[in-house]
Amino acid sequence: MMRLETPGLRLLSQTDTLQVSYSGSGVNVLSALSRFGHTAFPVTTLPDNPIGDAAEANLRKLGLSSDYIRKDGLYLGMYFLESGFGARASRVTYSNRPQSSFNTAAEDAYSFAETAKAVDAVHFCGISLAMNDTVRRQALAFAEAVKAAGKIVIFDCNYRPALWGADGYALARPWFEKMLHFADIVCMNENDAIHILGLPTSSIERVDQLLELIPAVANHYGIATIAGTHRAIESDGRHSLLGYLYTGGDFHFSDLLTFSVYDRIGAGDAYASGIIHGQLSDFAPEQTVRFASAASMLAHTIAGDTPFSSEAQIFRAMMEGIGDIER
């Protein structure tokens, strides 16, 4: 996607300048994994014009291979970001997504079986499921091919109310359920279980709901690993983040991290990339969840959607916290 951001803290109605970058949930996760030493590439369609060329060039700058990018169509999905301050929340306005080359690609545009043979794992995002029935069927066909090839299916729920529209939870549920049946690693929390999957709970506190519902989801869908975060905004404007990882029938939690926020967009993708890296690298569960939480914390300090922290920088944040100037 193309991110168009107002400079500073201005509203769209106040500015005549927009800062352009290229991102998206999948791009954010893949670029972070590339920085951790993995070979990563998006499977997508970009417009066959200078906008698509610019997007592809920027993907290569992020360390991503373009081997599985196809060119067709005219449009790239966009979103406009107005950064919030104090009591005013940040606002994201989507534009042109239904007409994008990705969303209008023919159902048989991709060779999923061949791609599945060439990879170790594939990351899917719930945002893709919000697009249209063709994209949903493509995602499920790809997940089925990955599963049939004996590779790892990763699914981040990433439910976006603005994309699903009215009765969004009811529309999303059957598609999410189908994807969860394929998934080995899932990013979600108790709110996804309650609202998307419709699971009942007698618990009031979020942590108690998490402890009750996540094992039920894992058992019902046969998911090996589920991870997610709890976020709180403190009275001074700082954010607190608690990461969790459920695997092997046990919960593992990070320390509660409290930090100032420069740019929140993409921080959840940084967390997901940390979980994926830990799983693929055979980290111990405790190390994986702490690594992912530190990756998310650092992503809050960097402008733009895309995480730019290296594995070494994240390990340093885990061990030493935020310090003075590196010299």
| Sequence stretches where pLDDT stays below 50 over 5 or more residues | none
Examine the secondary-structure arrangement and name the CATH architecture of the domain at 1-105.
3-Layer(aba) Sandwich
- Quickly give the structural class: alpha/beta
Number of strands: 13
Straight-line N-to-C gap: 36 Å
Rg on CA atoms, Å: 19 Å
Helix content: 25-40%
Main β-sheet, in a few words? Answer: 7 strands, mixed
**Spatial shape:** globular
- CATH class of the domain at 1-105 reads Alpha Beta
Count of DSSP helices?
12
Mean pLDDT: 94
Beta percentage is: 15-25%
Helix and strand string, N-terminal first?
EEHEHEEEHEHHEHHEHHEEEEHHH
**CATH-defined topology of the domain at 1-105:** UDP-N-acetylmuramoyl-L-alanine:D-glutamate ligase
